[in-house]
Specification:
The protein has 351 residues and is an alpha/beta fold. 34% of the residues lie in helices and 19% in strands. Strand 10 (194-197), helix 8 and strand 11 form a beta-alpha-beta unit.
Amino acid sequence: MKTQIVTIDSNNFNTTELKEAAEILRKGGLVAFPTETVYGLGADGLNTEASGKIYAAKGRPSDNPLIIHIADFNALNELTADCPENGRKLAEAFWPGPLTLIFNKSSKVPYSTTGGLDTVAIRMPSHPIAYELIRKSGIYIAAPSANVSGRPSPTKAEHVIEDMNGIIDMIINGGKVDIGLESTIVDVTAEIPTILRPGYITEEMIKQVVGEVEYDKAVLSRVQDAGVKPKAPGMKYKHYAPKGDLTIYEGNIKSVIDAINQSAEEKLKAGFKVGIIATDETFSYYQKGSVKTIGTRKDESTIARGLFEILRDFDSEGADYIFTESFSNNRLGQAIMNRLLKAAGYHIEKV
Ligand code: TXA
Ligand code: MG
C-alpha cells in the first residue's frame, strides 16, 4: 500500500488534506495523526472491520482494547451505558485534554474495539488537528499510539513513518507533540476513581476534582510482579522497549554518574555500542559512549517530552546497552518512571 504523507499546520488546519483524511476514516481506512500526547493510529471505532485493521497494522494482541476519541460531549450518551457523577466531573475538568476515562459501554460499541470488555475507554483530545479530524469525519475514532506493538510511542511523524509507512492509508505530519507520554487513564466505573495508567493529568489534579482516587496495583509496583494483573490490558505487555538493553541507575546523582561511567567503560571495552541518557544538568559528566540529554531536571515536562524520542534515537544508532539516570516519582515524574521502568523491563540498579 502507498501511504500518503501530508503535512498540516496546527494553526491552519482547515485544509483539503484534513478533509481527505476524514474521508479515508469514514470509508474504513487508517490515518495516523498527532494528538497532544503521542501520535495516534485512527480508524472508525464503531466499525469492526476498520478497527480490525488497527490490530493488524500494529501487530497488537486482540485482547488489548482501543481508546475511542470524541470531539463532543454528547458522544458520551451514545457510547456509554451510564455516565457516573465522577466521570462527568473529570470530563468537564480535563476535556479536551490528555485524560482517558473508562465507562461501562453501550451496545453501540463493538467488542472488537473493547477487546471483549464490557467497558469502553473514551478521550477527547485537545490537539487542534486531532479534534478537527474527529469533528470533520463525523465518526468516533478508535486510536492507539501509532507505533508497532512493543515499540516506544511516536512523538514525531518521523517515528510513525518508521513504523507505519506502506501499511496505512495516510500519515498526517503535525510536528512534534507537546506532552510526549500517553494520556492518564482513570476508571470511573467503581465508586472511587482508579488510575490505570499515570500521565500528564496527575493524581493531585484528579483529587482536586473528585476528592478521592485509587491506583491500580499494577501502576504502583516498581517491579515486575507476576501476581499483579493490570486492569488496563495493555499495561501487561512488554512495552516502549528499545532494542538495546536498558538499565536504570537509581541513587544519589554523583553515585549514579560514577556507576554509569563505569558500566559504559566496561561495555565499550567489550566492543558494544553504548548509549547514555543524561540530563542538561549532568550531560558534561559523561565522557564515553553516545551521550544524549533527555531534558532538564528543572522542568520534568521536558523529560516526558524527550523520553520516547531518545529511546528511538538509540535504536537508530544501534545501541547495544543504554544506561539512564532515574527521575523523581512525584507528579509527572510518576508517569515518566512508569514508562521508563517498563522500557527497561524493570531493570534497576540501586547505587
Ligand atoms: O494518549 C493516548 O491515550 C494515546 C493517544 C493516541 O490518544 N493513545 C493510546 O492508546 O495510548 P494505546 O492503545 O496505546 O493505549 C491504550 C491503553 C491500553 O493500555 C489499553 O489496554 C487501555 O488503554 N484500555 C483501553 N480500553 C480499556 C478498557 N475498557 N479498560 C481498561 N483499559 C483499557
Ligand atoms: Mg500504545
